[in-house]
């Protein structure tokens, strides 16, 4: 395919926008449901750190402003999701003050690491050695893909996809698709970048397929259990009415009335009368 700088920049920009706003649906979902059960804390924590490493790459390479802003916005939203949701405020039920403190702490450490790594890599890059900088670019993409592995474990534990926004996964996957397409219009095709982008697309697609297959099956399973009034471990599921009956708020149901009457007839009086 012939090189086309306009197409390359347009597709790359769309991919960048997707990877900038992708976490907004997840943050909104966690805030709305006040729960992050099923969302791996390692997923968003590692994604936050990947924003730091790619920011080093973007700044030292002196990329355009949108490409420099993208990893910073991505990392910030990832850390918001980690502090707000993943086992900090909603998950581990820590106070909002503690969650905010943890968020500020991890942001401060990340900012310090970013500045330190920029000053460490710049001299080598100016002297013509680009390998350290390439490491940061590749490592960031690999980290984004590998971070999805803990999410697979959460899906396996719950036997369905819960806690994670499917819109979030779709936008993330689209970011990889458009970034991949932009490489097709480069003068020299970047195989390493293509592999990392494609890896993100495939791993996101696995989560989406799991949601399409496992979630309907889980809903049917819960419906059957509700009808049978039991859970898989054999513990009774107590409906509000059945609990109220035991507390005397409602009269017992038909077969329970008969059982109570029979027991009353069989039980001898305590005062000795026949």
Short description:
With 274 residues, this protein is an all-alpha fold.
What is the averaged pLDDT score? Answer: 77
Give the assembly state of these chains. single chain
Largest sheet geometry: none
Structural class: mainly alpha
Beta fraction of the residues? Answer: under 5%
Order of helices and strands: HHHHHHHHHHH
Helix content: over 70%
Poorly predicted segments? 234-250, 253-261, 269-274
- Radius of gyration based on Cα positions: 27 Å
How does the overall form come out from the CA principal axes?
globular
**Total of helices:** 11
The total beta strand count reads 0
Instruction: State the end-to-end CA separation.
Output: 101 Å
Written description of the protein model:
By secondary structure, this protein is mainly α. Helices cover 74% and strands 0% of the residues. The longest helix has 38 residues.
Lay out the secondary structure.
Layout: H1 5-21, H2 24-33, H3 41-60, H4 65-84, H5 96-126, H6 131-146, H7 148-158, H8 166-184, H9 191-228, H10 240-246, H11 254-266
